[in-house]
Amino acid sequence: MIKKAENIIVGISIGDLNGIGSEVVLKTFEDARMLELCTPVVFANVKILSFIKRNLESTVVLHGIDKLDQLVPGKINVLNVWKEGVDLNLGVNDDKVGEYAIKSFVAATKALKEGLVDVLVTAPINKYNIQSEDFKFPGHTDYLDQELEGDALMFMVQDNLRVGLLTDHVPINEVASRLTEDLIVKKIETVKQSLIRDFSIGNPKIAVLGLNPHCGDGGVIGKEDEELIKPVLKKMFDKGTMVFGPFAADGFFGSGHYEKFDAVIATYHDQGLVPFKTLSFGKGVNFTAGLSKVRTSPDHGTAYDIAGKGIADFNSFKEAVYLALDVYRSRIQYEEMTEKPLKVKEK
Questions:
Q1: Cα–Cα distance, 165 to 266 (Å, whole number)
Q2: Cis geometry, peptide bond prior to residue 231 (ω within 30 degrees of 0)
């Protein structure tokens, strides 16, 4: 079934209420032009969000609803996921507030699965205070990987800079043991298909960074690059995937070499995210590639130190909304192009 390209419904999970999530959401939709691009629905409680709005002296108008069929285009809809009040202490880590962050996220994910919202944008959570008997996931991505079809991959995006990861939230001393041929192939294929389907790039070029300093210097500083990564990349390249590397990570971004590729895949978290966040200047977006539904988030955390002060930069969250809309439209275009492929006439 072909999806709609207009009046896209953006589900928003509110994140940690003691952090800056609510502030960046409200600031994003203070610009009325945003409501011409999409219909937002925040999964939270309208009384709580109204309290935060007054504290920030925000001018937005909130429209509280109890069911998603009450959505009103042109309004900032707030779905009441819970009715009771919540004691807030802005800037403080609070396990009780973490419970409400997960209530919001789980409800938004359910609506996404059921097609009641078209895309999901998640405000920042605290990975520590969300843990409970009912929710034992390191973060958003792992839960979405369980709930949605496909294989989730963290894909950091800012304009034409796109950075994926072979391993994400993994201790550095476990990275080498996690790398296998199957994992490398799966992650590269996920990035390739995302570039084609989500970014409309026909034959993408992908760079892969090496694990060890100088890609191991021929095995002197580690053998993984020479004995594992390099052979896998060659095998995939010989089969038609435009994948190159491994490249030494230390000078890859500083030299501008990344600009020659449609995406870069780092072997571990900081190898990819440190240069990405340095180059993206607060406008980066975390996109979960490889899933049947579209989810994005800003590239920052709860920022307790500035919560409630009205000084949070909302550009990353706004860019997350833009990217979610762009990917959704790109998937519509991809489906239209592949649903009824042209038949080749027989000679």
A1: 5
A2: no
Q: How confident is the model at residue 7 (pLDDT cuts 50, 70, 90)?
A: confident
How far is residue 31's CA from residue 29's CA, in Å, rounded to a whole number?
5
How many angstroms separate the CA atoms of 174 and 84, rounded?
A: 43
Report the C-alpha gap between 154 and 288 in whole angstroms: 5
End-to-end CA distance of the chain: 33
Largest CA distance in the chain: 74
Helix (H, G, I), strand (E, B) or coil at 283: coil
Main-chain dihedrals φ then ψ at residue 242, nearest 5 degrees? -80, 75
What is the distance of C-alpha 13 from the center of its chain? 13
Ranges of beta strands (E only) in the chain are: 8-13, 38-44, 62-65, 76-80, 119-122, 150-158, 161-165, 206-209, 243-247, 263-266, 285-291, 294-298
Residue 290: φ, ψ to 5°: 90, 0
Query: In whole angstroms, what separates CA 38 from the centre of its chain?
Result: 18
Distance CA(21)–CA(303), nearest Å, equals 9
Dist CA 245 CA 200 (whole Å)? 23
pLDDT in tens, 48-88: 999 999 999 998 999 999 999 999 999 999 999 999 989 98
| Cα–Cα distance measured from residue 288 to residue 73, given in angstroms and rounded to the nearest whole number | 26
Place of tokens 């070499």: 257
The phi, psi pair for 264, rounded to 5°, reads -125, 135
| Beta-bridge partners for 243 | 206
Q: Is the pLDDT of residue 2 over 50?
A: no
DSSP at 134: S
Summarize pLDDT for 98-124 with one digit per residue, the tens: 899 999 999 999 999 999 999 999 999
* Percent residues over pLDDT 90 in the chain: 80
Contacts 24+ apart (CB under 8 A), 63-69: 65/41, 68/41, 68/111, 68/116, 68/117
